[in-house]
């Protein structure tokens, strides 16, 4: 069975490496980094000393609903800019939304790849004298043009939870000198020294997941029972998700991050990306979002477009792939606005296939044999 995330029990994950810190130091020598429990809280702290309430921040419309909550926490307005099919900003739309109160423009490196137009966003931010936030939540290990993604702006973030089998964890990068000098970490910065109940719950859930992995049908039944009447993460309101994220990085996450082997993880993810690429190339109802996998990129997932996303997800599940999903659930005001037609279509059509380091490429190839039939 192919799950959405790696498990703490995967051999590839538990091999001991030098950890995340030296990797970040090596690829982002000019930035400082600070640990947090969540990327959203890192965004809040990073911007807190730089902005005034009543200003606005421009963010892509193609985005998970809770990501703008830290801006609202700071009294900022979030303005959504439209994106193209390639996920590049619609620059005419973006520029039309900038005004004298624009404090920052945020780019998003989707699925571990640099957002097309990233350098133009940086120069526009200079031109309009606002900060450039480089949101690299999706992939802490992606390096582009010799520099870690997330550090291509004045400040940026990444999320360890999307890379490692951890309950939480994120990094704030301060790259610009003024950003560095204005940064004043809140009590939510840093790594907790105590093992918390949440750490134990996470490990217990990993054990349960491992047992359920032995049988996709058992997995489906348990999921159905659990979702009966209970709220899944998508139904929790964005501000509730943000408030729940206001905790420092857990001790368990810190231990896993310190033992990780970044180069091995990135290599495994790239191999799995290529395995999906071969399968998808053989089907004319599926269009990969990224045709190439440039050197240095650590893919978060393998995104593919199809007009029949529900049917494709069902087909995948029949083949034992339970970790695929559409992405993202858009914020309600984006979903209801025709200006964001491309983001809405992408959110309906894009299926993200898991490539994490806990998956053996042979497992993907076996799925491929069934999907090709
Ligand atoms: C593009 C993007 N930015 C930021 C975040 C927030 O990261 P975190 O969940 O660590 O707060 C997410 C989370 O899904 C995301 O997808």
UniProtKB/TrEMBL annotation:
Entries under Pfam families matching the protein: DegT_DnrJ_EryC1 (PF01041)
Source organism superkingdom: Archaea
Entries under InterPro entries matching the protein: DegT/StrS_aminotransferase, PyrdxlP-dep_Trfase, PyrdxlP-dep_Trfase_major, PyrdxlP-dep_Trfase_small
Biological processes annotated in GO: polysaccharide biosynthetic process
Keywords assigned by UniProt, alphabetized: Aminotransferase, Pyridoxal phosphate, Transferase
Molecular function per GO: pyridoxal phosphate binding; transaminase activity
Record-stated family: Belongs to the DegT/DnrJ/EryC1 family.
Protein name: DegT/DnrJ/EryC1/StrS aminotransferase family protein
Species per Swiss-Prot/TrEMBL record: Natrinema versiforme
């Amino acid at each position: 069975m192919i799950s959405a995330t790696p498990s703490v029990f995967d051999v590839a994950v538990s091999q001991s490496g030098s950890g995340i810190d030296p990797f970040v130091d090596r690829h982002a020598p000019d930035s400082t980094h600070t640990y947090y429990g969540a990327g959203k809280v890192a965004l809040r702290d990073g911007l807190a000393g730089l902005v005034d309430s009543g200003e606005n921040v421009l963010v892509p419309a193609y985005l998970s609903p809770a990501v703008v909550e830290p801006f609202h926490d700071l009294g900022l307005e979030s303005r959504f800019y439209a994106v193209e099919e390639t996920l590049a900003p619609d620059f005419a739309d973006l520029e039309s939304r900038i005004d004298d109160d624009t404090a920052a423009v945020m780019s998003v490196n989707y699925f571990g790849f640099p957002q097309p137009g990233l350098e133009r966003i940086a120069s526009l931010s200079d031109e309009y004298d606002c900060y450039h936030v480089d949101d690299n939540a999706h992939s802490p290990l992606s390096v582009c043009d010799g520099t870690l993604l997330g550090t291509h702006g004045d400040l940026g973030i990444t999320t360890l939870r999307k890379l490692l089998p951890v309950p939480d964890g994120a990094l704030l990068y301060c790259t610009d000198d003024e950003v560095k000098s204005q940064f004043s970490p809140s009590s939510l910065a840093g790594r907790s020294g105590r093992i918390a109940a949440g750490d134990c719950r996470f490990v217990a859930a990993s054990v349960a997941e491992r047992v359920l992995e032995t049988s996709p049908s058992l997995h489906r039944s348990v999921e159905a029972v659990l979702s009966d009447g209970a709220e899944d993460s998508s139904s929790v309101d964005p501000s509730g998700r943000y408030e729940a994220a206001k905790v420092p990085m857990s001790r368990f996450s810190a231990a896993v991050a310190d033992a990780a082997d970044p180069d091995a993880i990135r290599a495994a993810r790239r191999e799995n990306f290529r395995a999906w690429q071969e399968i998808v190339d053989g089907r004319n109802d599926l269009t990969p979002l990224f045709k190439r996998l440039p050197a240095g990129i650590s893919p978060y997932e393998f995104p593919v477009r199809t007009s029949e996303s529900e049917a494709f997800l069902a087909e995948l599940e029949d083949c034992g792939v339970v970790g695929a999903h559409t992405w993202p659930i858009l914020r309600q005001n984006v979903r209801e606005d025709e200006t964001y037609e491309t983001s809405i279509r992408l959110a309906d059509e894009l299926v993200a296939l898991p490539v994490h380091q806990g998956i053996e490429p042979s497992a993907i190839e076996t799925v491929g044999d069934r999907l090709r039939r």
